[in-house]
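Batch manifest line 64
LIGAND: zinc ion
JOB: complex structure
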Amino acid sequence: MESLSISYMKKIKKCLNCDSYTLSDVCDECGGETVVPDPPKFSPEDKYGEYRRRQKKLKGVEDG
Ligand SMILES: [Zn+2]
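JOB STATUS: finished
ARTIFACT:
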């Protein structure tokens, strides 16, 4: 069930124009461009997790 919900979330997109949610690359309501709103935070394959940690570490060094 978990993997099913993840794949479902990946398909959900949000219209940049009218904030409608759709499964299409194009908004059903206004034909505007749609984007995936947020990556699932519970994903084990968080490509940006390492990036964030790296940034935090760099900042920590700066702050001393
Ligand atoms: Zn729209």
